[in-house]
Amino acid sequence: MLEAMRSPRARAAAAAAAVLLLAAARCDLGIPGVPPGEGQGATGFRLPALHAAPDPDAGGRILDASGREVILRGVNVNAFVDYWQLSPSRFTTYPFTESDADLMQSMGWNTVRLLISWSRVEPQPGVYDESYLDEVEQAVEVLESRGLYAIIDLHQDAWGPTLVAPPGTNCAGHGVPAFGWDGAPGWATQDGGRLRCAPGGTREFSPAVMAAFQAFWNDAPGPDGVGIRTHYARMLGHVAARFAPHDSVAGYDLMNEPNAFYLIPGQLDALSALYADAVVQIRAGEASVGAPARLVFFEPGITWSDTGQGAPPDFAHDDQVVYAPHIYQGGLNSLPLDASVFQQARDEAAGYGGAPVVSGEWGGDPSRAADPSDDYFELHQALQEQFRFGATLWTWREACGDPHKAADWVAGRIPSVWGFFDVDCATNTIAGMREPLAAAMTRGLLRAAPGPLATVSFDPATRVLAASGEAPAQTSFVAFLPAGGDTPWLEGDGVALYTWKPAPGGGLYVYGFAQPGAWSFTLRHR
pLDDT of 357-407, one tens digit each? Predict the structure, then answer.
């Protein structure tokens, strides 16, 4: 236990200081996970703005406005995605509700990757659907009220919802008729009449999808004569202008899993060109509303997690960019999950000035969490902690009409959905939360570290959260402990005092200060 807490007089003084600490935290410190002052509601939170601190040697970091390191952890939410629909009788998404946000808060997370669709943002060239963006903004505000940052992700899979194979398409020798997916609007889709067949069922290799992406990389003129890639970058600037005023918006993910293949000459160069243009448009959008620069998350090409290749060449950018590969090794493919994958991501990030790394997607079949012999979810999260990577799991909810389930329906099978909620697709009813997955994903989290972190880890067996680092000045910290007791016990060096309050779901928020210099502690339930 802390030295300052041992004598009765010291304990009394520390208790008084802890009261002041909690009062200060409520009103002034902007600590994520702490309700603000009077009049803002029991679920209200103030989340400090985030910024990147690049480091080509030790790996970049994400810091908040007080200089505390923040590791973004959470989940993907697809409630606002404009998916192609196989059958009108099966909806493709579930709405995002305050109850969802409550459950996410109870798991200790601090981030949601919030998916949106270009087809909804810009339904006509240069025309933006503000009512759609209003809906997304309401979700951002709900998330903030529960202490969760939002990463606004421009999502796409296999280009867009319009490239479904027409009825009667003959794909003999060319795979299977392609499904529609999500992403681009029809007006920006230039597939050249190519065949809509997915070789081996691989959606990205449909000739129509590949042609549409090549037209995009070439910045082919849209209906108004403006290049479609130029339209996309301008659309990102508009999105930034809408959301940049929110400090709880961590930033924008420029494009989900872009079809930029390293084996096709020029495509990775074109991806870099898109990213450079997008940064310019986003910064202009932020400046137009007087908002600071938010983080810009950028991804490698879609082959990255399957082949280890696809990182684009460096591009013109400022120091507020975040490398965001999807670390699906060991989850969606047979490749091994080990430290080398994370090291590769860090090494590649060094090539972009030492950008921080956040894996925008990772995950595997949720049933694996119920298998005691399968350590996938634990190993992935332990590696996230070892490398100080942010990460958001795929996915929160999946509906039975999601295009990912279309192949099952076409084959006459009743699908099983991913996500935290089991659904009986035969009756389209929610069977309940997948408790083993929820348990595997509920970990102790240092939500805001007092300065740069050296190490952080959580042991689910002992329920101990351990961390160390260097505080540049007396700096506050915030931690989350999952349910397991009503009193936290902190041991370590360089920590002046701490206090706590209950968190939703039975966990605890723990607040304290680290003294200038090196600090370390372990935190557990007493």
Answer: 999 999 999 999 999 999 999 999 999 999 999 999 999 999 999 999 999
Of 140, 90, 86, whose CA–CA distance to 115 is shortest?
Answer: 140
Residue 389, SS3 per DSSP: coil
Q: Work out the number of other CB atoms within 10 angstroms of the CB of residue 482.
A: 23
Q: Give the whole-angstrom CA distance, residue 496 versus residue 476.
A: 10
Tell me the residue ranges of DSSP E strands in 460-516: 464-471, 475-481, 488-493, 495-502, 508-514
Q: What average pLDDT is seen over the chain?
A: 92
* Rounded Cα distance, 503 and 490, in Å: 17
Q: How confident is the model at residue 44 (pLDDT cuts 50, 70, 90)?
A: low
Give residue 486's pLDDT.
85
Q: Would you say 52 and 319 are in contact if contact means Cβ atoms under 8 Å apart?
A: yes
Q: Is the pLDDT of residue 464 over 60?
A: yes
SS3 118: helix
* Residue entry with tokens 């740069």: 452
Measured CA to CA, the distance from residue 2 to residue 18 in angstroms comes to: 13
User: Do 471 and 517 touch, CB atoms closer than 8 A?
Assistant: yes
Radius of gyration, CA atoms only, the chain: 23
Residue in the structure block whose two tokens are 């603000």: 36
Segment 139-191, tens digit of pLDDT: 999 999 999 999 999 999 999 999 999 999 999 888 999 999 999 999 999 99
Counting beta carbons within 10 angstroms of the beta carbon of residue 41, is it exposed (0 to 12), middle (13 to 18) or buried (19 or more)?
A: exposed
> CA dihedral in degrees (419, 425, 429, 435; nearest 10)?
-30
Tell me how far apart the alpha carbons of residues 232 and 185 are, in angstroms, rounded to a whole number.
11
Strands 390-393 and 358-359: parallel
Domains of the chain: 3-50+455-525 (no CATH), 71-158+239-442 (3.20.20.80)
Total length of the chain: 526
Tokens of 202: 């691989």
